[in-house]
Amino acid sequence: MNSPARDRARNLGTRLGGLGFGGDYNPEQWDEATRAEDLRLMNEAGVNLVNLAIFAWARVEPSRDTYDFGFFDTVMDDLAAHGITADLATMTASPPPWLAVEHPEILPVTASGGILSPGGRQHFCPSSPVFRDRAVRLVEAVATHYRDHPALGLWHVSNEYGIHVAECFCDTSAADFRQWLAARYGDVAALNDAWSTDFWSQRYTSFDQVLPPRTAPTYPNPSQQLDFKRFSSDALRTCFTLERDVLRRITPDTPVTTNFLAGHKAVDVHSWASEMDVLALDSYPDPHWGSAHIGAALSYDLLRGAAGGKPWLLTEQAPSAVNWRGRNGGKRPGRMRLWSWQAVAQGADAVMYFQWRQSRGGAEKFHSGMVPHAGVATRVYAEVRELGRELALVPELAGTRIRNEVAVVFDWPNWWALELDSHPSEGVRCLDRVLDHYAPLFEAGVGIDVVHPSADLSRYKVLVLPSHYLLSAEDCARIGAFVADGGSLLASFFTGIVDEHDRVHTGGYPAALGDVLGVRVEEFWPAAEGEAVALRAPEADAPAPAPASLWREDVKLTGARPELLFAGPDWDDDRPAATVHTHGRGTARYVATRPHPATMRAIVDRALDDAGVAPVLPGLRPGIQATIRRGADHDVLILLNHTEDTHEVALPADRRDLLDGKRPLVRRVTLDPRGVAVLGSDGN
Q1: Which fold has domain 624-680?
Q2: Longest Cα pair distance anywhere in the chain, in angstroms?
């Protein structure tokens, strides 16, 4: 993030005076009396930040080049009068009906040629020059009108890019794709080489012959598919930067963001991060999933890693249930508070919701709101108000950072490439495999960063590559240097198989990391669905670990020694299943199957021990999460109880209880089920 971007982000923090708290505010859905009550209740609940006018294009521009700001002028004035900052949207997330009628060419086209109609949202082709032009015109009008308004504190560009339309296959997108390819490769010969087009007679003699990977008789070219996903993310990013550039020109001191969705495959957050002043995330953990907090933790560490460690904003979460799952479970008492504090613990400087008041109509009317259908005399509103009070008690948390010694490598092009067709096993899914490695690290109590493979690795002691199929030769060299310089590497099966163009690194898998890992793999032998893969320890008298699953490989040792063996009785008996190798001053572990979680935890613990990495707070019972956010002259320890039991936590030194208004010194903390403790260093 460059210096002007840092200054803009600081402007927001200075304005809020601490952590942000609020949600999506949709006053256009309500009458004047309800809006007046909203403002009173927001002040009562401690709301200081709202996302405003996200879906207001049709109201503000009811017909071409006719703008009506009267309604939102009143809303913005009311927010300013009540001390509430607006994260004002550019309103471009959903084109108005008149635009789709006048210009049906903006509508997106599917891979099979179908046209997606208006009636929902995001019904636009990202490459459409008409859509882009109309969006920029709207943003110019909105920014000019509100540039000096006292409520304006942050710009919110569009909303959840690519969540409904991630790719468009129309002729306009095809032409844009060809231009993107020409800029990436320079000439057709380079594209033919990258795409291996001599396979199946796909060789091109002109960029004009290239199409998007539309529905074809059989598997489309995998390199073509991969590049089209890169292009599609970039096309959406261009929509963002076109709007952002208008905002920076008209309001150069106001920060700009857009909200990503946790676990969203279509948008490469790493390639967007440098374009934004502050990163923002929408997070909806499923209350029915017992490990939802671990999945959320991965998303938070990933976004913070993309932000270079800087604080980020939780721009949406659900106060209770959502509306779009097959089974929409509500959050039990205390869980919303716990999960909100979890986001803060992992770097969020704002906690916000979709939405302030639960809608009466529309597709999201059963999505919970801070003010539910049942009103303020409800558990949900009481918990919301109490959380607002707590967040206001700790202004010193804003702007603080997290420092960790463990990094998990994550990359969107790898995600896209790993899950293409024609692979050894469709069971190798990116997020599942990352969680196989992230979960035991989380349970070990260590702090984790999730980083791009090109990140600066010198600050870390342990690096984890979870089935990281796509790695460039340059990234492999960087990882090798990390180990040689004393780092501890843990890599799992199907890692380092192809380069950035989805071409295999030849010479035996994983060729580009073979010397580092001390192994050579000749064949993959994926397990059948539900098949148990027996393992044993090299020592004859050691107890056998629980069976593994999903995958096995024919591993040859080229310097490594086995830590686990396959136990047959088939051909793979006594072949290595997990290995360790000394490379330079470091160690590199390789896991050639998917171990049982307990076995994976043991492997992770050995890697941490090798590197001398300790938990954030040693001695915690399972289910207790500890993080430390650090400022220039203070730090804050946050303890989170993800269990249904009460736990006592002994602290190594006295700390201030920051959620007690008197801030007493404590040495021991009682964490109730789903409880939270926020503890400052003695100087707080």
Answers
A1: Immunoglobulin-like (2.60.40)
A2: 81
